[in-house]
Specification:
The structure is a single chain. With about 350 residues, this protein is α/β, with parallel strands linked by helices. It folds into two domains: about 220 residues, TIM Barrel, CATH 3.20.20.70; about 70 residues, Antifreeze-like/N-acetylneuraminic acid synthase C-terminal domain (Type Iii Antifreeze Protein Isoform Hplc 12), CATH 3.90.1210.10. It contains twelve helices and twelve strands. The strands form three sheets. Strands 5-4-3-10-9-8-7-6 form an eight-stranded parallel β-sheet. Helix 1 links the parallel strand 3 and strand 4. It starts with a strand and ends in a 21-residue tail after the last helix.
């Protein structure tokens, strides 16, 4: 599967920098953040496309007041989204700028009007946010646009994950990536359950990844080691910008360190490989082999005192030791000579 020009089977881990609310209400900050994401090695910048009116109701009833120990407790949903949203009139300029500097860009739509709006900009993929996985009509409409679907599974039951996949496939869209996600901000490490990443791929036959809301880079680095092919992390140019998501976003230095660590893990993982390449063959000289441990006269019997398994590895393989014991020497052999078959009668 490809997202834009990035081949998820060949090109490594796809790292998404989530802009979200980290723009400080200024398009210049949004553009600088996109530029920084490109500079530190992210593969994509992701926006969120909604307004307060497309995501909630302007209502003061208790249902619409945030509570439950979040960063935003006692705020009205409508006010939070009014503060956090990315103005739609910025999108075109941000898409053009990202493409100009060579970083992929796409967005999370939160209703059908956002999908229609984004289609004009031709994003390389669509992301369904974790709380929107229950909005089956949004998933259906988005999938119908036949772009790769990246779906966070945060609050979903296994049945809802299956439903989302079947909806996409019913639209003829089989390009689906499921992201393990803990929908808490920030998310405790003990709630990450990263073993689910491989299970998502195995259970549903899709590419899997990790949308991370924990603090620091331990979780995404571990996720890659456990099989994640896509990593998404909130990115802020500088935490002094503030905003709704600043507390659980990585700044430029932190994100750069995470990217570098992920690229190192990619190299470490490599591939399943038992071949004897030139490096291995060369290093076998430091392995053990059979050597003459004492001067031996012609006709003398080999025993565990006059031949030993030692380093380096220029003599016979140690597996032959038992076969050689009590055999006779074909000639005089000096101390520290690597044992060879020609020495044995």
């Amino acid at each position: 599967m490809k997202i834009g020009s990035f081949d998820l089977e060949k090109d490594g881990i796809y790292i998404i920098a989530e802009l979200s609310a980290n723009h400080g209400g200024k398009i210049s900050i949004a553009k600088d953040t996109i530029k920084a994401a490109k500079e530190i090695g992210a593969n994509a910048i992701k926006l969120q496309t909604y307004t307060a009116d497309t995501i909630t109701l302007n209502c003061d009833k208790d249902d619409f007041i945030i509570k439950g120990g979040t960063l935003w407790d006692d705020k009205k949903l409508y006010d939070l989204y009014t503060e956090a949203y990315l103005p739609w009139e910025w999108h075109k300029e941000l898409f053009l700028y990202a493409r100009e500097i060579g970083i992929d860009i796409f967005s999370s739509p939160f209703d059908k009007s956002a999908v229609d709006f984004l289609e004009i900009l031709n994003p390389s993929a669509y992301k369904i946010a974790s709380f929107e996985i229950t909005d089956y009509e949004l998933i259906r409409y988005t999938a119908s646009k036949m772009k790769p679907m990246i779906i966070s599974t945060g609050i979903a039951t296994i049945e809802e994950i299956q439903d989302a996949l079947e909806i996409c496939k019913a639209e003829g869209n089989n390009e689906i990536i499921l992201l393990k996600c803990t929908s808490a901000y920030p998310a405790p490490l003990e709630d990450a359950n990263l073993k689910t990443i491989a299970n998502l791929a195995e259970t549903f036959g899709v590419i899997s990844g990790f949308s991370d809301h924990t603090l620091g880079s331990t979780a995404p680095i571990a996720a890659v080691a456990l099989g994640a092919k896509v990593i998404e992390k909130h990115f802020i140019l500088d935490k002094s910008i503030g905003g709704a998501d600043a507390d659980f976003s990585m700044d430029k230095q932190e994100f750069a360190a995470m990217v570098q660590a992920i690229r190192h893990v990619e190299k470490l993982l490599g591939r399943v490989d038992y071949t004897m390449d030139e490096k291995k063959r060369n290093n076998r000289r430091f392995s053990r082999s059979l050597y003459i441990a004492k001067d031996i006269k012609k006709g003398e019997l080999f025993n565990e005192e006059n031949i030993r398994s030692v380093r380096p590895g220029y003599g016979l393989h140690p597996k032959h030791l038992k076969d050689i014991l009590d055999k006779k020497a074909s000639r005089d052999i000096a101390f520290a000579t690597p044992l060879a078959w020609e020495h044995i009668i």
